[in-house]
Amino acid sequence: MAKINDNYLKLQGSYLFSTIGKKVREYEAANPDKKIIRLGIGDVTQPLVPAVIEALHKAVDEMGIAESFKGYAPDLGYAFLREVIAQKDFKDRGCSIEADEIFVSDGAKCDCGNIQEIFGLDNKIAVCDPVYPVYVDSNVMAGRTGVFDEAAGQFKDVVYMPCTSENAFVPELPKEKADLIYLCFPNNPTGAVIKKSELQNWVDYANKNGAVILYDAAYEAFIEEDDVPHSIFECKGAETCAIEFRSFSKTAGFTGLRLGFTVIPKALKLDGVSVHDLWARRHGTKYNGAPYIVQRAGEAVYSDEGRKQIKEQIAKYKVNAKIIAEGLKEAGYEFSGGINAPYIWLKTPGNMSSWDFFDLLLDKANVVGTPGVGFGPHGEHYFRLTAFGSKANTEEAMRRIKLL
Amino acid sequence: MAKINDNYLKLQGSYLFSTIGKKVREYEAANPDKKIIRLGIGDVTQPLVPAVIEALHKAVDEMGIAESFKGYAPDLGYAFLREVIAQKDFKDRGCSIEADEIFVSDGAKCDCGNIQEIFGLDNKIAVCDPVYPVYVDSNVMAGRTGVFDEAAGQFKDVVYMPCTSENAFVPELPKEKADLIYLCFPNNPTGAVIKKSELQNWVDYANKNGAVILYDAAYEAFIEEDDVPHSIFECKGAETCAIEFRSFSKTAGFTGLRLGFTVIPKALKLDGVSVHDLWARRHGTKYNGAPYIVQRAGEAVYSDEGRKQIKEQIAKYKVNAKIIAEGLKEAGYEFSGGINAPYIWLKTPGNMSSWDFFDLLLDKANVVGTPGVGFGPHGEHYFRLTAFGSKANTEEAMRRIKLL
C-alpha cells in the first residue's frame, strides 16, 4: 500500500505567507469597504523596467518564427546569460567565478528549497533564528530534522543560531556541530547585513570544519554601504565551502517572471565528490531550464540601460524604507534594517506578541505586515515591514501606524 | 562534516539526453561539414502559434505598467488557467475534475521528478521497461531503490514491467507488490497507447491494492483514435488512486516556454491524509508559480483560435510520423507507434545493439535518434525516432536511412 512521506506531518501549520494570505482574505471578505495596504509578503509593486519589457517582446517575436524559435533551453541556462552574470556579478567584483559555475533557474526559492536534496539525510543543518521558513521546512520534508518541539517553538536536531538586537542580528559561530549552514545577507527578515571580515570568519569556520555554507544573497542589489560584501565569494576560500543563491525577484522586480541562479564553484568537493556535478545532475533530471524569453529578460538587466533603470527602481523602494524608518522613529518604535535591505524589523510595542500585533495592525490600521515569530521563536515580539509598496501606500500606512 | 546524498552515486552515467548531446557535439566538432538531422530528443521545431504569441505580447505589456503588473503568481496557478483546463480537458470529456484539483507548474518533467517527494521512502515503485528515465532516476536520488545491478541493467528493489512487441508495449499488471506505479500513455518511448478498458483494469488494481498510479499523459494531444483515453480520470474510480501529469510542451510547442500541470483529486487519500494537501504544501514551500506571461500563453491554447492553430501544428508533426513510418516500411524495418503518438519505435536491423545503431546512424546518415536501451534493458535492440523535426528534415533523414 502506498504511504505518504510522513515527515510532512511534522510541518507546523501552513506556510507562513499562506496563513497571512488567508487571514487577509477573511478580513477583506468581512470588511469589503476597508482599503488594505500590504507591507507583508516581500512582493514588488513597480512594473518591469523598459529594457526588460523590450527584451521580452523581442524574444517573444523570435519564438513565433521557425528560424529563431527556441525549444528546450540548456538545463543549466543559456550561455549568453551565464556569461554576463559571471562577468558583472562576480569577475567585476574580483570573484573568480566562471560561467559554468552558474546554474540558471526559475528562482532562488526553488533553489534554496531543492539544494538540500544533494546532501545526505545525516547532515545537521544550522539556521538563523528568525529565518526564512523555506530553509527549515524543506529539510523537515526531507527528514533531516526531528519533530517540532512545541515548548521551544523549534524543530529538534536543528542548530538554531539566535539573531537578536544584542548581536545586531548577526549570529555567533555555532558551538554545536553543524554540516550545512544557511546564511542570508542582507537578511530576510531582519534586514541586517554582515561585514566582509565577519563573513570571512564564517568561511574560515566552514573550511576548518568541513561544513558547507548555503548563502542566500537574494537582496544583494539593496546593498549601498562599502564594507558589506555582495557575494560570499568576495571572501578568501569560499570556493571550497560555499554555495550562493541569487534572485532577479528583488533586483529587477521579477517575482512574477521567475528567474534566479545558484553558484556552485567546481572547487567545492565533499569526500572527493564534486557538489557542482551533483547539482548539474539534479538539474538535468528534474528540471528543464528557465524559459528562453525570461532568460533574455534577465540578460537585459545587465545592459547599461537595464542597470540604470533597475537602479532607479531600487532607489524608489529605498525612499519607502526611509519613509517607514522615519515614521517608526516618530511613533517611538525600536527597529533596524532598511538601509542595505528592503526589510524593516521592528519591536512590537509593549512586548505584544507578533500575531497580536499583526491582528491589531490589520484591524486598526488595515496594514498587513509579517509577524516575526513566523520566522522563528527569536522573532517573537518582532514584526517585518517591507519597502516594496508604492510610495503613496507606504506613506498612508505610516500615517495610520502613527495614529495607533 | 557535510556529506553528499550518496544515492546520487548509484545513478548510471549521465542523463540519457545529456550523453546523446555530448556524442553529437563531439561528432559535429570532428565533422563540421556534415549536416546533422535531429530526430532524437523529443523537442519541437515549429514556432509558437499566433494566438500564443499574441497572448504573450499582451501579457508582457501588462507587466510593464504599474496598474496591470503582476508579482508572485498564486503558488498553484492563476484561476483563469486552472478553470479553463478543468473545463476543456476534463469536464468536457466527462471527467469530474475541479479547478482546485489542478496544480500549474513549469512542466511535466519537474512534476514527474518531484512527485515522489510526497511519498515515503519505503514505497516500492513499478515502472515500465523501457521507460522515461526521470521516473527511475528521481527515485534513485531519493533512496527509494537499491543499487544498480549491472548484469540485469536495472536497479534493485524496483518492479520493472516489461513492454515488448509480445504485449504490444502495454505491460501486464505487476505480480509483485508495487505501491507507486508509473504509467505513460501515449507512451514515451514506444509510442504505444492503452485502451480505456485496459486502463480501467489498472485503476481497479490500484484501488484494490492501495497503490497510486502516477499517470503521465504528456502526449495526450496526439491521440486520434476513439477508444484511447485522453485522461486516466475517464476511468471509474481513478479519483481515489491516480495522479495525472500534463504538459504544454508537445501539445502547443512550449518546450522552451515551460508550462505543465498536475491533477491530484481531493478524493485521493492515503491513510486518511490528503495527497492533494501534501502537494499543495510542497508547491507552497519549494515553488513560486509559473510566470504570469506563460500562464496567459497557456490560456490562449484553449481559445477557439488557439485550439485550431495547435491542431494544425500537431497535424504537421503527424505528417512527419507518416513519412517516417512509410520510409521504415520501405527500408524493411519492424516498428510501432506514430499513430496516437509522436514517437516511432523501431527494431534495430540484424539485432544490432541500440548504441551501435545510434553510432551507425550518426556516422553514416548524420541522423540523431535515441537508443532504446537508454530507456531500460527491454529497450535494447530498439531505437526511438521522433516526428518533431521539420518536414524537409524528416524526408531527408528517411532518404538517408533508406540508403544505409
Description:
Two copies of one chain form a homodimer. The mean pLDDT of chain A is 96. Chain A is built from twelve helices and 17 strands. Chain A has 404 residues and is α/β, with parallel strands linked by helices. The longest helix of chain A is centred in the last third of the chain and has 28 residues, at 304-331. Chain A folds into two domains: 6-48 and 305-403, Aspartate Aminotransferase, domain 1, CATH 3.90.1150.10; 53-304, Type I PLP-dependent aspartate aminotransferase-like (Major domain) (Aspartate Aminotransferase, domain 2), CATH 3.40.640.10. In chain A, strands 2-10-9-8-7-3-6 form a seven-stranded mixed β-sheet, sandwiched between helices. In chain A, strands 13-14-17-16 form a four-stranded antiparallel β-sheet. In chain A, strands 1-15 form a two-stranded parallel ribbon. The first copy, chain A, is globular and about 55 Å long. In chain A, strand 4 and strand 5 (154-155) form a beta hairpin. The first copy, chain A, has helices spanning 16-30, 50-63, 79-90, 108-114, 133-142, 196-209, 249-252, 275-286, 292-301, 304-331, 354-365, 391-403, and strands at 37-38, 102-105, 125-129, 148-149, 154-155, 159-162, 180-184, 212-216, 242-247, 260-263, 269-270, 273-274, 335-337, 343-347, 367-368, 370-371, 382-386. Chains A and B meet through helix 2, helix 4, helix 5, helix 8 and helix 9 of A and helix 2, helix 4, helix 5, helix 8 and helix 9 of B.
